[in-house]
Amino acid sequence: MSFKHTPVMLHEVLRYLNCRPGKIYADCTLGGSGHARAICKKIMPGGVFIGIDQDIDAIQNARKILEPLDLSVHLFHENFIYLPDFLGQLKIKSVDGILLDLGLSLHQIESSGRGFSFKRDEPLDMRMSTAADTTAEDLINRMAGNSLRKIFQEYGEERWSAQIARKIVQQRNRNPIRSSKHLARIVCDAIPKPALFNQKIHPATRVFMALRIAVNRELEMLDLFMKNVADLLTPKGRLCILSFHSLEDRIVKHRLKALEKSCVCPPDFPQCVCDQKSVIRILTKKIVRPTKDEIARNPMSRSTKLRAAEKI
Fold first, then answer.
1. What pTM value is reported for the model?
2. Residue 111 has pLDDT above 70, yes or no
């Protein structure tokens, strides 16, 4: 299996994670293992590496790349929200660093055959884990038109969500929509022609992103993970998150701010009664973006937003 992927903002990730020999690090979204391999080299000798991915292809690729290295490597095929369970299995209370890279890998786009891209004619699957029950085809062919509109509008921030949902319902009443190319054509047909020519991205981009988010419950999983992530870090442990659209980044930003806040009492209270303590220190007061050189080398990195924090 050929697994192509270029790790995004690799130098920045390693700097913010503060990787050191003998420490414990978790990469909760292995992808092509580019970040993982670099982290492992930094924590040798004596380090412990925990890798998680819900895509079995990523796990199989990680075994080839990481297991020959001279350190303790533990790989888990699941969603990152199960990190606390995996730490429990390993009898590890907390780790020195956690990485989340929330983007698609190049392998998933080009080689998975699961319809993540509108550039290929593939089954409308879009599951990160093929063990999951619901596919994009299920949503497209079974959901009510208004529910589809809501997905496209909320998850894809798609301006023409109502027209696209209406067109999908019309087309599926004639024939089921089963392929990525078929769906992309329907989306293009639904958008007014003048608007098509003014778009800087492919007209189906936001619809495909919204479907992928809905199929994999990505925002829900991220929000659940962020609620208790500080509990999984050692003092001075680092969290680094790479997000790729505004909805993900908004969740990360708000959760980090809440964890950093030391008091949630109403401002008119004479003194604090909540006793809430700050548990993290945000290291990136503003989002960190890839350099122009990196974007030139790897155009897929252009929308990346990096945020990092340290456990107090």
1. 0.90
2. no
Look up tokens 């007014």; give the residue. Answer: 192
Q: What's the CA gap between 107 and 82, in Å, rounded?
A: 24
Domain that holds residue 45: 10-107+219-311
Say if residue 168 is in the same domain as residue 225.
no
CATH code of the domain in which 284 resides: 3.40.50.150
Same domain, 203 and 261: no
| Calpha distance 22→53 (Å, rounded) | 23
Domain identity same for 56 and 83: yes
DSSP state letter for 105: P
78: pLDDT strictly greater than 90: yes
Cα dist. 84→225, 232, 279 in Å? 10, 7, 18
| Overall domain count for the chain | 2
* Amino acid residing at 66: L
Alpha helices for 157-204 (secondary structure H):
161-174, 180-190, 193-198
**Is residue 18 one of the residues assigned to a domain?**
yes
> How many CB atoms sit inside 10 A of residue 78's CB?
16
CATH of the domain at 195: 1.10.150.170
Please state at what angle helix 180-190 crosses helix 205-216, rounded to 10 degrees: 130
> HSE (CB half, 13 Å, CA atoms) of 227?
8
| pLDDT over 70, % of the chain | 96
